[in-house]
Fold this sequence. Notes:
By secondary structure, the protein is an alpha+beta fold.
Amino acid sequence: MGITDNDKIIRVNMAGLSTLVEDFPKKWKLLGGRALSSNILLNECDPTCDPLGPGNVLVIAPGVLSGTTAPTSGRLSVGCKSPLTGGIKEANAGGNPGQDLMKLGYRAIIVKEQPADKEKRWGLVVNEEGISLKQADDYKGLWNYANCEKLLADAPKSASAISIGPAGEMMLKSASVACTDSDKERRPARHAARGGIGAVMGSKCLKWILVDPGKLPTRKPSDSKAFAVFHKSFSKDYLVTRHDKFKGTSAVIPVANMLNTFPYKNRTSGSNPEFEKLDGARIYESFEERGGEMHACMNGCIVKCSNAVNDKDGNHLTSALEFETLTLLGSNCAINDWEKVAVLDRLCDELGMDTIEIGGAIAVLMDAGGMEWGDAEAVTKLLREDIAGGTELGKTVGNGAVSVGKSKNHERVPAIKNQTVPAWDPRPLKATGVTYAISPMGADHTAGLVIDTQIGGEAAVAASQAAQINCAVIDTYGFCMFLRPSIDETRQFLSHFLGEEISNEQIADIGWQCLEEEWEFNEKAGLTDADDDIPACLREEGVGPDQLLMFDVPTDLIAKAKKRMPASEGFYKADGTG
Length: 578
């Protein structure tokens, strides 16, 4: 039984308001998620196109193993030419849409062109009955929670949704694409956030996608017995030896602060003297009095890293108040109160914006004297009134940190390829810095995070490349970064699913091919070697004891990450970092 025998691709032409379903090419059997998106973009999207014009292509692709019972394997990739970086972009999200699309047998949705009438809004319905575009003018301008509540009110309980908020409709370069959670309320709390992909969906005038697999079962492996045996073994090993009662990413704040990778006041320091006020332990402690819980964002998740956070009255406030958000919207802006950051996180989810990019933009604004450090009320007003209202200030901030730097003539902007540097700082984490510099995605921790303060130089380059390959593989097969299966573990899941032996080399080659295709796209888009570097402020300004920790990997050494290095057996069987 071949995995592609009955699989399909949905093509949507927004100019003609038409849809077409095609057979999934067998040559792409091993491609899904990020690798499939990158291949389609390289072959079907002009890299020199206007990212917000009709020539850009939006690709929505579940992972190869999404829709199966493989643990935590339902993540969804969204790809396009980024309006923020000017290069290729893939961002991915949890929630149920990835699982649901694959249950229906759809390996990708490819959206092209733009409608003639840019004032109208459209929705796409995908279910067992087929594919259809629906007028969605009555959803225009709705915030994400209201949008999904309205959309799902009369939809079956089995349905999930993909949507954009006002930021996407306004085509702001920080705009995200939201996916609904697996909780019974189906909240739009899972975001494919980075690179402005929500703006591209907005440029297509596509407000939402409703996916309903009905009562369709999970995808069946060719070798069900072997798949089940490995599934049980892998899950047990993860929960016993790797999970360690994981309480979500917010719990790493004390460690990050100790390692000088908890940025404070626009990265002028790597640690925050009031870090305990943002520590995820405070969130976890609130569950007993206010309610809330750690929960799975998608069906089949065994990680359960998402914290459902309630306010003082016990009402739901936000989900997935994560380390990156607490860092960029909190510590980096000197807003040292997790509850105030939770309010800002909910507003970003509602408007549909990347909390990393918005946090970076506001920190630059504060650093330039445009707002007082730590003024959470002013930031709340900025989001609620200026960004939502489309004022000039709102557009400037909504278009990201580089946009604010240019507006304020402020040079200290920690961004790479125009994208804000995430929480994990490249000065103590050299290999992560190499990833930020050389990744086709720009500064993106999900492209190849290496948390090791002891390596530098060539070792950092090798570790970065290994992590980038493994992360590309994880994004291709639909797994979650927190599950982090090795190359060999991914191979075993895939081999049992397909009923044919797949080698570690084949899996690793797919990850490398993905990176090469993305670098090729960026080169054709006009990005150069000069774009593959860390900003001067992170090379010249130190953090840590006596401010001595600086990013010091030279550019000629960073460039070696684009030339494939020999892989040892340990690479396949470890966690992908070498």
